[in-house]
Amino acid sequence: MSYEQEEEDHYGPGYEVGSYTKDYNDGPYDGENDLNLNSNPEGKPRILLMGLRRSGKSSIQKVVFHKMSPNETLFLESTNKIVKDEISNSSFVQFQIWDFPGQVDFFDPNFDCEMIFGGCGALVFVIDAQDDYIDALMKLNLTVTRAYKVNPNIRFEVFIHKVDGLSDDHKIEAQRDIHQRANDELMEEGFDSVNLSFYLTSIYDHSSYKKNVLQSFIIDSNEALDFKLVREPSDVDNDETTFKPEMSHQIFGENESIFGYQNLKISLYYTAGKLNTYLGMNYSKKVDPKQFEGATADDVMGAITPKLPPGYMTNLDDFLVTLNKEQSFKPPGELLSTYSINKGTNTTDYKGSAAEKNFELYSCTIEEPSFRSYHERLQTFLLWYVDAASFIDVDDDRWRFYLIFEKYPCDGSHRYALCGYATVYLYFAYPNKTRPRISQFLVLPPFQRVGLGAELLNTIYRSFLKDSNILDITVEDPSEEFTRLRDFVDAQNSKKLSSYSKEKLQQGFNAEMVEDAQRELKINKKQARRVYEILRFEATNLADVEEYRAYRLDVKRRLNIPYQKEASDYKKLQKALNAEELRSTLSTSTKEQRIENLDKQYQMLENEYRHTLERLAATK
Ligand SMILES: Nc1nc2c(ncn2[C@@H]2O[C@H](COP(=O)(O)OP(=O)(O)OP(=O)(O)O)[C@@H](O)[C@H]2O)c(=O)[nH]1
């Protein structure tokens, strides 16, 4: 903490520029003299803290007398009534501080000037030096005028506060200016003998202040964002309907942080069915470039709006009006399947973990009337939930879209709320077949963990099963989460195939499995092998040392294939290069390293398989 001070009075007669040391207790209010001189006959000496809102009154008091760290004052609430604080550091130093709310009104009949100024020793008036201080000076003038009339003995101390953010030149200028103007105005009022003492003060020392305050303006962008799928106006004020993004680096950069605001909230709301969109933001404080060498706050709206299709709203009332159109919303395309949870239970709580919920799964192409613009709104979710997501070229007619909606009761009828969606691209498979590839797959957070992902994937599968033109189904860059889901669904389905019976699994992976999985379930060869490993693990008696070892070897043999390739490449290179060239071309691993790596890979896989089998067991 530092109190900066001016040593001399260069600002004309009648004013004393007091010195003010770091330790408040050595300052003007300490020492018997002051206390005796200003003592209040009704009790302890009283010091009043006055000034405009947010000038720093409570912070000064908390830091000086209550050991609050300066950074914590950033979160002080505005004072809205007089707060009286008893200070008793020793039997000598005892007084009261009355912290006044910034908006105190002397003309309010409840403001008892006689009582307040009457028994008061000193009045500290705080002026925020980083602010435009015209209003503060007017208030100072009014305060001094009122107080002096009641109590001509009162001492007036003016704290030109928050000087940490000012350059040295700026500080001197502020002090001179405030001094001069306060003097002139009081002279005009006819007060020529009031002594005002001026101090340059701050609760921060300059360098740590800057660092800490800059820090306080950096916000986690995932935390700042609030999503909602709004069904009714009350959802806006209901925290339970809020969900968060999983990532925001595609909008706010690798660090997923936003600079320049305190208590920033970004609201990205969609109506639950039609996905009409609202974008809003609010914050308690924005960084002032004058204080931070020109550093400006990030342009939050400018980062998000280019990603939103035209038509989004920035006025919440306008957005809520569009809820009226939700009743006419019908999901696009063809209804492929329905799905229910908690059937027969009729509790109706919002989150409704116990309530019956009904879902419908649809499929369509971009030709579906009005789906093009719907998809533009829909795909904005990808930015926050799918890594490296890119918006697709919907003009390519080989895209298929799958959507899940909750069909929920409303006003005696029902409405639809979006829960998730997937896109699938119909690739060619040589010579004349089609190989659909699942590209984007998303179940929104409020609808996760109720089986909708598995339902969506199964619906996609079923939509292709009967088509003999479809070779098998692949997945583009599957995330870990999607891999888990796919393993579960594929293993669950493959269990029903005779080629995956327990006996056959124990005999090893074979062509029949590949053919069956492809023909019956459109599972491709690589995935068929993975499913085999999962199901064989389930069928393996882990207590039987030999059986377990045979399983591990079988998996490790597959894992070793790339190493074998490396070894044969090495042999070829050995023939073509001399020893030196060979060393600089290849860093072949030793046998021990290879075994260690294989073991690690195996352990990771086994863990994944265990998770899949746990889920399978739980859904039996
Ligand atoms: N830069 C800077 N900021 C400060 C300093 N002292 C206080 N502040 C900040 O100023 C803001 C307002 O502080 P408060 O102490 O709540 O102000 P107040 O005058 O009590 O405000 P009201 O209760 O509304 O009358 C807070 O965010 C503080 O962190 C300072 O010396 N330097």
TrEMBL record:
Per the record, GO CC terms? chromosome, telomeric region; endomembrane system; nucleus
Q: Which residues form a coiled coil?
A: 563-615
Please list the residue ranges annotated as the Histone acetyltransferase type B catalytic subunit C-terminal domain.
Answer: 486-537
An individual GO BP term: subtelomeric heterochromatin formation
The main location is membrane
Q: The Histone acetyl transferase HAT1 N-terminal domain covers which part of the protein?
A: 218-387
Pfam families linked to this entry: Gtr1_RagA (PF04670), HAT1_C (PF21183), Hat1_N (PF10394)
Q: Which family does it belong to?
A: Belongs to the GTR/RAG GTP-binding protein family. Belongs to the HAT1 family.
Name of the protein this chain belongs to: Histone acetyltransferase type B catalytic subunit
The opening ranks of the lineage are: Eukaryota, Metazoa, Ecdysozoa, Arthropoda, Crustacea
